[in-house]
Amino acid sequence: IDLDGPNRGNWLTGNIMSLFEGGVDYCVHIAEKYGGAVRLYGPLGEIVYVSDPRALYHIVVKDQHIFEEPNQFIMSNKLVFGEGLISTIGEQHRRQRKLLNPVFSTSNMRRLLPTLHPISDRLTSILASKLPADGSHKEIDVLPWLSRCALDGVCQGILGYPSNTLSAAENDSYAEALRKIGPLIGKLMKVRSITAFVMQNCSPYWARKVLDLVTVPWLPTQYMADIREMRRIVETMDSASRKAFLERKAAMEAEETPDLIDTACRDNDSMTSMMDIMLKANAVSSNTERLTDAELLGQMNVMVFAGLDTTTSALARCIYLLAQHSGAQARLRSEIRDATKILEEDGDMPSAELPFDVLMSLPFLDSIVKETLRLYPSLPVMARATSKAITLPLQFPARSRSGGYTSAVAIPEGTVTIISILAANRHQGLWGADANEWHPERWLSSPLTAPSQAQEVKYSMDGEDTVSMSRSAPVMGVKDGVRFPGVYSNMMTFLGGSRSCIGFKFAEMELKQVIATLVLRLHFSLPTEPNTQGHVKEIQWKLQAFHIPVVKPPAGDGVTPQVPLNVRLVKKDDFIWNAVV
Ligand code: HEM
């Protein structure tokens, strides 16, 4: 591959792990140094690391069928989640998206918001109850509570399943399974290729038998234990979501109204869940487009999983940044107070239960969420594999192997391509010289163009595939008609194209609801209490599959800090890792 890049590194594993070891700085630095397409090495050879806007447009939109998710990703997802969106490709995936896209419409989000009100209230009350009655401050590890909140949010909002992990002393087995599944998938990453091979060549019955057999003789014991644990988790998850699904389906079939979508939503606005809406959309769809029960069930499993650690990571980052920037926190609080005061005066709403349209249009809250998701996307990099050879055009020339520059790169079939969401979101050419800084005000100084003056934003890729769109667009992230092909405010956080995040509106709404409720009543700051030796605890962020906050105990403190039960601890170097779950 005729691209420049860092040295190969380890002869066997290459330099791919540097992305995670070097963290955000490294991921951004290599794009700034070599350009929007960089050559890296993995165990199986060369890898292309991409952050160029035109190349990304080809990867996620125009040539998406050539840049599919790697086979082992699809196959192992199928084994764990069933027939949901992250386990299907091609025509089946297209059919699923066609039915599901309208389910995530703005009007359906409006219906779902009330399911999040009691959850964000409960989170706030729990944290407030831990504070001293005299109004003074106290150090609380908020991460596990944010995680429980995100879990209750997806369970209730998506599945209609009241997991109540915020209130319950003991978690139910379903909630427990959901919390464990992300880290286990990470641990089992190395055996994914075996899974893919077996799944493709055997029936489900034999796949199960073969996987049992082939893994026994040579896999380290820990893998075996993890595989057994994964199987237990999958069974728990499957039986709980199947039960919820069958109950809702039976209840829906008992309704004798032809216009199922409209009636149910009108009659029972606040009680609805994503599953209800999806079941109803499916019932009224044509026979050829209708999803099977297995596909519907798979969607539920996938959405609950996809919406959990991503949202927790984003919530944690927002709270962390607000704690770091007390001025922004104060400004946000007064914006929310003003909004709730107006409503109280109107006698409309109790405190933080802002109506959907008010919540979603608070300018500073919107800026905080956007800027945080831009600078710290929950999923910093995504992998694709080319199903055939292709030449990828670049918007901005990248450094070639010979030391010159190239504006197109030939990629052989079977090449792993890494989409760098992180580097794209920090592209200085499109986001400005301060692209690496958290600066929420940038979104305020970039008002929406009024619909009457809607600009024709020309997304000029090449002669043939020019995409033009007329819309009221924020000017942020666009320069000379060039922008990233993301579904959310020109950034790549939720990707773009047919495999973009289907739940991004739900995620945005949940983030805004939880942050508004928390900030209205609580003030957040970083740890300040020195231990007996005068050292203060540090919070740092580790880049794994997700961004994970890492708590470094105060220097010289040999005592392991007290941590809540649901936090998985891994001792590495001198850090205590608080996994997101
Ligand atoms: C801040 C929160 C979130 C972030 C940053 C995020 C990000 C992403 C990204 C980058 C992808 C593309 C993955 C890939 O191509 O491999 C994705 C896919 C997906 N997300 Fe999200 N997500 C978030 C929340 C949610 C929520 C709340 C839901 C469910 C309601 C959800 C459901 C999905 C699904 C089902 C897919 C697969 C789509 C497909 O393949 O067609 N996500 N998400």
Can you summarize this structure?
This protein is of the alpha+beta class and 581 residues long. It has helices spanning 18-21, 23-34, 53-62, 71-81, 90-100, 106-129, 143-159, 173-187, 192-201, 204-218, 221-254, 260-267, 274-283, 293-306, 309-324, 326-345, 356-360, 363-375, 421-425, 428-431, 441-444, 504-521, and strands at residues 37-42, 45-50, 67-68, 381-386, 390-399, 405-411, 416-420, 455-459, 467-471, 478-479, 482-483, 538-543, 547-552, 569-572, 575-578.
Q: What is the element layout, followed by pairings?
A:
Blueprint: H1 18-21, H2 23-34, E1 37-42, E2 45-50, H3 53-62, E3 67-68, H4 71-81, H5 90-100, H6 106-129, H7 143-159, H8 173-187, H9 192-201, H10 204-218, H11 221-254, H12 260-267, H13 274-283, H14 293-306, H15 309-324, H16 326-345, H17 356-360, H18 363-375, E4 381-386, E5 390-399, E6 405-411, E7 416-420, H19 421-425, H20 428-431, H21 441-444, E8 455-459, E9 467-471, E10 478-479, E11 482-483, H22 504-521, E12 538-543, E13 547-552, E14 569-572, E15 575-578
Parallel strand pairs: 2-7
Antiparallel strand pairs: 1-2, 3-4, 4-7, 5-6, 8-9, 10-11, 12-13, 13-15, 14-15
The protein binds protoporphyrin IX containing FE.
Structural write-up:
Helices cover 48% and strands 13% of the residues. The protein is globular. It has 22 helices and 15 strands. Helix 6 (106-129) packs antiparallel against helix 7 (143-159) and helix 6 (106-129) packs parallel to helix 22. The model is unreliable at 258-271, 448-473 and 556-581 (pLDDT under 50). A hairpin with a 2-residue loop joins strand 14 (569-572) and strand 15. The strands form five sheets. It has a five-stranded mixed beta sheet with strand order 1-2-7-4-3, with helices on both faces. The chain has 581 residues and is an alpha+beta fold. The structure holds protoporphyrin IX containing FE. Protoporphyrin IX containing FE is lined by residues 69, 85-86, 97, 158, 302-303, 306-307, 310-311, 314, 377-379, 382, 493-495, 499, 501-503, 506-507.
